[in-house]
Amino acid sequence: MRKLGGVGLALLLSACVGGVEPPRGVQAPVGRDPGVSGPAEPVRVHPMRDTGASPNIRGIQSPARMVGAVPFLPSPVTPPLQPATAAEAGVIAGPAVSGLPIDDAQAQAAFAAFVTSCPSLVRRTDTSGLTRGSDWQPACTAASSTQRRDARAFFAQWFETAQIGDGKAFATGYYEPEIAGSLERRDGYAPIYGRPSDLIDVDLGAFSTALKGKKIRGRVDRSNLVPYYDRTAIEQGALSGNAPILAWARDPVELFFLQIQGSGRIRLPDGEILRVGYATQNGRDYTGIGALMKSRGLLAPGQTSMQGIVAWLHAHPAEGQAIMRENKSFVFFRELDGAPLGALGLPVTGQVSAAADVKFVPLGAPVFLSLDRQDATGLWIAQDTGGAIKGSNRFDTFWGAGPAAESTAGGMAGRGTAYLLLPIGTVARLNQANGARYGGPSAQP
What we know:
Elements: E1 65-67, E2 70-72, H1 86-89, E3 91-93, H2 104-123, H3 133-143, H4 151-158, E4 159-164, E5 168-176, E6 178-182, E7 190-193, E8 200-203, E9 215-221, E10 224-227, H5 231-235, E11 245-249, H6 252-261, E12 263-267, E13 273-281, H7 289-295, H8 306-315, H9 317-325, E14 331-336, E15 353-356, E16 366-371, E17 378-384, E18 394-401, H10 403-410, E19 414-423, H11 426-434
Parallel strand pairs: 5-18, 6-12, 15-17
Antiparallel strand pairs: 1-2, 3-4, 4-19, 5-19, 6-11, 7-11, 8-9, 9-10, 12-13, 13-14, 15-18, 16-17, 16-19
Helix pairs in contact: 2-3, 2-4, 8-9
């Protein structure tokens, strides 16, 4: 679901689904607003994640500070202030996978998602600098003949943990919303647009090797390539028939949040459901409105969750429209035949899939999050990306659809430690190749 990123949606508004460029999160997928937190109602704790298990960590030689369920490992080296990739941030060998508090149900769900991601892991270029496609082949081959019931043993046998940089994780949440809409235009309804015919994607790497990996979007104005229309211009009719209208949303605020999530369901008047997913985005930068509203004193205590922000926008329609328009980013959708898709083009799974920055996490890799939120602590598979999900140890967890998913995602802002699960031997290879740039046996203090 290419998401924009979601503060836990709460931060969302400062911020799976899926894409490397701004947005998608099932997209929000959405850059979060640090400092905006707290659900409007009690957060549901999923039984699978609320295990109450105590960690049994072995093999830790250096002093460790406990964060969540597993230890945070002090880095023996000082990484760059703003590392561009995981390789630059530095890698420290973590605890044994067998010592992580992963229960059978959690391992089995993650195993199924990992198997789905294997073809991409083997084929894709890992921009994090951590792995090569061939590194994943032994585990993926073994997975094809492994029974799902043996998932915990599988992860313990084929993977080691690695802490990237300081390992300090921040996790938000996103979900698949359901909003009311119509296939016919109605008074007060807002259009849900498909990709415009005049939107152009430009790969700058085709013009200069120095710009490899960089892309922009725009439109042609006479002989010039110019930025594409922003949110205000689009809402005021700038598309002029250049984009198909998939449906009409009854509530513009709900449509705004649908764009943040990156995919969702449109409930039609006859009860039928139209599923839409991220198609592309207008190329404009994403601005989280939650941080803006908080800094301006618009949100009272208890209003800083997604639910509280929505309530304020509904209560102040004119001011709310102006604030939403400060986010110039605009998402275009496409109709989906099935479940929401992540950045790999594969279905994302609630309470299993997560969005991450591909410069710090191989897309498709498992990651163990040890957080101050028990419902989000556990094993996730990085199958999505988000425009606001940037940097090391930054994750956006996907919670599925429905009221419980909305409640949990809307208040998700977990902090703790992240451990990537990488093919055994990866950390040693990086140590050998990079020496003191990495933590681990060969690094010098």
